[in-house]
From TrEMBL:
Entry's transmembrane regions: 6-26, 38-58, 64-85, 97-115, 135-160
Keyword line: Membrane, Transmembrane, Transmembrane helix
Protein name: Histidine kinase N-terminal 7TM region domain-containing protein
Superkingdom of origin organism: Bacteria
Length: 180
């Protein structure tokens, strides 16, 4: 019964992310921030699909720090951070800056893919304690992608704290009073 509930909730989340992303893309009307958010929602749905494929049932032991989930979540978090940047500073993220901003995620993902294709040993860990028992290249690459995810999660918080007042002033001068 619990597996069915988990499956239904996962399908609802995936459906909402896909439909929400499509709605944001259809109604973006040249608004780059909405465009980024729409694609981020679709990628979030892809991340949920990857998570369901990798770690589906509740009664099975879950793999900790699965590389596919780490890379997909890092990419989604980076795109959501790009949304915050575009919202706070409209027009700042050109294609070149967006590519540079996402390059650590792409390099991290490609380095792990190269490690896999070159015959690197892939370990399965079921707890965080198991991850830190033996530090090898596999674990270091996973921790690198995890650290990138944490940095991309902290960046929007920092930017909102730094530019929040300026953004409110910009809205009150150019759009409307954010207090009303």
């Amino acid at each position: 019964m619990l597996e069915k509930i988990q499956f239904l909730l996962s399908m609802q989340i995936i459906g909402l992310c896909i439909l929400g992303g499509i709605m944001m893309l259809l109604r973006s009307f040249g608004n780059r921030a909405r465009h980024i958010l729409g694609w981020s929602m679709i990628m979030w749905a892809a991340m949920a699909v990857i998570r369901n494929i990798v770690n589906f049932y509740l009664h099975d032991a879950k793999e900790a720090f699965h590389p596919d989930v780490l890379i997909a979540s890092c990419f989604v978090v980076a795109c959501l951070a790009a949304y915050v940047i575009e919202k706070l500073r409209p027009g700042y993220l050109t294609f070149k800056r967006f590519s540079i901003f996402l390059s650590p995620v792409i390099i991290g993902g490609l380095s792990y893919l190269t490690y896999r294709l070159c015959g690197g040993e892939i370990h399965v860990y079921y707890s965080v304690r198991d991850v830190f028992n033996d530090l090898n290249l596999d674990v270091c690459l996973r921790l690198l992608v995890f650290a990138l995810t944490v940095v991309y999660m902290a960046l929007p918080i920092y930017l909102v704290m730094k530019y929040g007042k300026e953004y409110s002033e910009y809205l009150s001068e150019n759009v409307s009073d954010p207090e009303n």
